[in-house]
Write a structure and sequence with these properties.
Number of helices: 14
Helix content: 55-70%
Radius of gyration: 23 Å
Strand content: under 5%
Distance between the termini: 49 Å
Length: about 350
C-alpha cells in the first residue's frame, strides 16, 4: 500500500501592509518629488544668471510673489485631488475684496464688519459651486465657468452702480483699517529684511492642508473621492459634503487673498483677477497634482507656487524681457507634467 508523502510546510503569509518600505521607495512615491527637482533647477539657474537673485531682499520678494499664488494654489490643489476644478477662483478673490470695501464704505461701518460680511459672501459662493456640482449633471468645468462669468459681470456692474467708476472708494481713513491692514497686508522685519505677512498665511495654510490630507479622515475622503466617486460612495464616504467642503476651502483662500489685495492698495479695480485661476491650477499641476484627481499634495502645490515666484522675479532680476515669462511658464508646465508622470510610473512600478 503506497503512502502519501506529507506536504511541505508552506511559509506563513505576510501581510503586505507590514512589509518594510525603503526610504528611497517612499521618496519615489511622493507626488511633490518632481516639483522639488524642478524648484532646485530653477533656483540654481537664476542664482547663476541673475546676479541679484541671491540677495536677502530679492529672496523676500520671491517669497512674497510665491505666497500670493500659493495661498490659492494650496486649496485649489486639495480640490483637484478631490477630482474637481474651480475656474471662478481668480475673480472670487476680487469679489471678496470688493464686498469688504463697498460694504464698509456704503454702510460707514467699521472695516471689520465689511471683512466679516465678505467672508460670509465668499464662503456662500463656494457653497453655491459645491451644491450646483453635487445636485446637477454638468461637470465642475462648466459650473465654475458659469460662476466665473457671473462674478466677472457682477464685480463690474455693482462697482459702477455703487461707486460710479470701475474701482472702489478709499477706506483708508475708516475705523479698523489699520488693524485689518496689520493682519492681511503688513510687513514683518526679520534680520533687517522685510517679509510680507502673506508668507506667514501661506505657511499656515500649507501646514493645515497637509495635516488634513495626511492625518485626518477627511484627507482619506478627499483622495477617495478623487480616485473614484462611485467607489468612494460604496465604502461610505460622504462625497457631496466632501466636495462642498473643498469648494469652501477655495473660497476661504480667496477671502484671504482678497483682503490682502484690498488692504495693500486701499482701492480695488473691479476687473482684476481674470486669468489667475489658470495660474493656481498650473501651480498645483507643477506641484504634482493630476488633472484626473486622486493624486497630489499641498506641499507640492506650494512648491509649484514657489517655482512660479522664482521664475517671475528671476526674469526681472536677470534683466530679461518679461514678455518671455509666459513662454517659460508654459515650458515649465509641460516639463513638470512629463516629470510627474514619470515619477508616478516609477512609484507604481516599485510597489
Amino acid at each position: 500500500m503506497s503512502t502519501v508523502a506529507p506536504e511541505a510546510p508552506q511559509p506563513p503569509a505576510t501581510d503586505e501592509r507590514l512589509l518594510k518600505t525603503s526610504p528611497l521607495r517612499k521618496l519615489m512615491g511622493r507626488p511633490e518629488l518632481g516639483s522639488v527637482v524642478g524648484a532646485i533647477a530653477v533656483f540654481l539657474f537664476f542664482a547663476i544668471f541673475a546676479d541679484s537673485f541671491l540677495r536677502a531682499s530679492s529672496l523676500a520678494t520671491v517669497l512674497y510673489a510665491s505666497s500670493t499664488i500659493g495661498i490659492m494654489a494650496v486649496p485649489v490643489a486639495l480640490l483637484m485631488i478631490g477630482g474637481e476644478f474651480d475656474l471662478s477662483a481668480g475673480v472670487m478673490v476680487t469679489t471678496s475684496a470688493l464686498v469688504s470695501s463697498m460694504f464698509s464704505y456704503q454702510m460707514t461701518a467699521n472695516v471689520w464688519v465689511g471683512v466679516g460680511v465678505s467672508l460670509l459672501v465668499t464662503l456662500a459662493i463656494g457653497v453655491f459651486n459645491g451644491v450646483m456640482l453635487t445636485r446637477t449633471d454638468p461637470p465642475s468645468f462648466i459650473i465654475t465657468l458659469g460662476t466665473f462669468l457671473m462674478l466677472t459681470g457682477m464685480n463690474l456692474g455693482f462697482t459702477k452702480l455703487i461707486s460710479g467708476t470701475v474701482s472702489t472708494k478709499s477706506i483708508s481713513d475708516m475705523e479698523g483699517f489699520s488693524s485689518a491692514k496689520a493682519l492681511f497686508a503688513s510687513t514683518l522685519t526679520i534680520g533687517g529684511v522685510d517679509f510680507k505677512i502673506t508668507i506667514l498665511w501661506w505657511l499656515v495654510l500649507i501646514v493645515v492642508a497637509t495635516w488634513i490630507l495626511l492625518r485626518t479622515r477627511v484627507g482619506n475622503w478627499i483622495y477617495a473621492v478623487g480616485g473614484g466617486e462611485d467607489a468612494a460612495r460604496a465604502v461610505g464616504v460622504p462625497v457631496n459634503k466632501t466636495k462642498i467642503g473643498l469648494y469652501m476651502g477655495v473660497a476661504f483662500g480667496a477671502w484671504i487673498s482678497g483682503q490682502h489685495l484690498l488692504f495693500s492698495f486701499d482701492v480695488v479695480q473691479s476687473g482684476e483677477g481674470v486669468g489667475n485661476e489658470l495660474i493656481y491650477i498650473i501651480a498645483a499641476v507643477i506641484g504634482g497634482c493630476l488633472i484626473t484627481g486622486g493624486y497630489g499634495s499641498a506641499v507640492g502645490a506650494a512648491i509649484g507656487a514657489l517655482i512660479f515666484g522664482m521664475t517671475s522675479k528671476g526674469i526681472v532680476f536677470a534683466e530679461w524681457n518679461p514678455d518671455w515669462f509666459k513662454f517659460f511658464l508654459g515650458a515649465m508646465l509641460l516639463l513638470a507634467t512629463l516629470l510627474n508622470a514619470w515619477v508616478r510610473k516609477r512609484a507604481e512600478a516599485t510597489k
